[in-house]
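tool_call: predict_structure(chain=1)
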Amino acid sequence: MKTALLVIDVQHGLFDQTPRPFEAEAVIERINTLTAKARAAEVPVIFIQHEASDIEYNSADWQLQRGLQVKEGDVKLRKNTPDSFLRTELEALLASWHTEQVVICGYASEFCVDTTTRRAAALGYPVMLVSDAHTTHDKPHATGLQIRAHENATLPHIDSFGPKITAVATSELHFAS
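tool_result:
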């Protein structure tokens, strides 16, 4: 099955805040493991970058987080909503590659990762949510760990879209070439 890897919003302005997101460094390492596996299997890697009033296009905060291994041939995509498909070229890119499923990781578990996962499934893509490679900041009502666990438990139980959403750990994810 043709696959694409989506790395959502791993940017300076979102990761360099104090306190940092839950397991920030470990998540970046896991994303680097995923991107290396994807490239080895000739799976497209797409880095999606959020823009907002406090994260302006091309500003220092908009740049991808240092430590991320970005290679020539990787795609960078701009967005300005939690939905990586809305008003972007993502759907057209996936169609041009004949993509049949997506793998999703990044930031923020309860916003952009959740919304993009749901939208991908609604568009007909089976989704593999990398259970240990998405993160968020602690919130007053729940920690980043609790929010990630909630997303990992909730999203795979949504079957009304049709395509399956699964949560899989970095170590268990293998890309077919």
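agent: The radius of gyration is 15 Å. Proceeding to next step.
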